[in-house]
Amino acid sequence: MKLQPLNKQLADIDVSEIRQFDESVSKIPGILKLTLGEPDFNTPEHVKQAGIEAIQENYSHYTGMVGDPELREAAQHFFKTKYDTDYAADDEILVTVGATEALATAITTISDPGDAMLVPSPIYPGYIPLLTLNHVTPIYMDTSKTNFVLTPALIEATIAAHPDAKIKGIILNYPSNPTGVTYRASEVKAIAATAAEHDLYIICDEIYSELTYGDSHVSMGSYAYDRTFVVNGLSKSHAMTGWRIGFLMGPRVLIAEAKKVHQYLVTAATTIAQRAGIEALTNGQDDAQVMKAAYAKRRDFVYQALLDMGFDVARPDGAFYLFAKIPIELGLDSRQFTQSLATEQKLALISGTAFGPGGEGYIRISYAASMADLKEAVKRLQAFIAAHKAA
Predict the structure, then answer these.
(1) Considering 218, 248, 282, which residue would you say is the last residue of a domain?
(2) Residue 278 and residue 352 in one domain
(3) Aminotransferase class I/classII large domain: from which residue to which, for each copy (predicted)?
(4) Looking at residue 383, which CATH number applies to its domain?
(5) Is beta strand 312-313 parallel, antiparallel or unpaired with respect to 246-249?
(6) Is the pTM value of this prediction over 0.85?
(7) Domain residues for 147?
(8) What is the pLDDT of residues 141-159, one digit of tens each?
(9) DSSP state of 226
(10) Measured between alpha carbons, how far is 296 from 232 in angstroms, rounded to an integer?
(11) Which of 83, 129, 132, 348 could make a disulfide contact with 25, Cβ separation 3.0–4.6 Å?
(12) Which of left, alpha, beta for 180 (phi over 0: left; psi -120 to 50: alpha)?
């Protein structure tokens, strides 16, 4: 049977390198994987109970397309209390199917075919296919020479180097996946000012905002309210990845348009999960603290072990990743390193190439794993390094 061609944009999209590698090494018996960005904690008991009660109380119908009013009010209070943002519950907060749908909605809302978007790199690879599907060209800004921090100077230089591009905005993610680097208030303020100078939108993915290990998170919404979509959710803060509750926040003029996109993508987020989200944001405001304390200990352990093995590592201030530069004397590129490590020592890490330009020569380690697994991972990595240095 002959079929007409599919969407041509799909030819430029593949399943993410992270997922491909994770699936391929899962076939190796005894493999220890530090690959995916998923908390190893379970959803807090009181949140699970709220979900159970929602089922029993027949919360099985649609909410309004923008989300449960109680959940939006809880989100307004939570983000105001935590990060001093001030989004109105009724028309500036949209409940989405996870942060991924929030990102897809934001990108679609601001984009026209032929636009370009500035993207700091290395960065989480999930943004790029969303741009591609919207016929938007990513323009990468390599931050590997600025300690993985996007600077106004780099934005200015990139704009100057692409005089004919129809640059619509900037995608930013902090605390960062894959580096764990985050931004101080002065740095956020400077980026906001540069975006305003060039009339750029900002899509700011702040999903790891509750997992910072030094200063509290600073939201871009506090400095560039009028031109920013802030993306957040409950996946990392409350270990609710499978519940799929995200938030898209912005000024009402942007959210009014975004809800059109959201409606036709998903109609509304799952009602039962939204009821659990109310519990998470009201009686679980500090649920992330226990997880954060454990992550901090794990970070310190793995960070020091990597330094002792000769890796150059940016010390992460947030999220649960380490982005480590492979010792040059090993003579291995990122993919060679991760594939050989998986084959020889049954340890799976992610190649830096999965995260765009600037990622070659690095590996990403997720320390969202038990301390026992991390200690075993360090032993296997030490054995691998020793063997290849002796070769």
Answers:
(1) 282
(2) no
(3) 31-381
(4) 3.90.1150.10
(5) unpaired
(6) yes
(7) 45-282
(8) 999 989 999 999 999 999 9
(9) G
(10) 21
(11) 348
(12) left
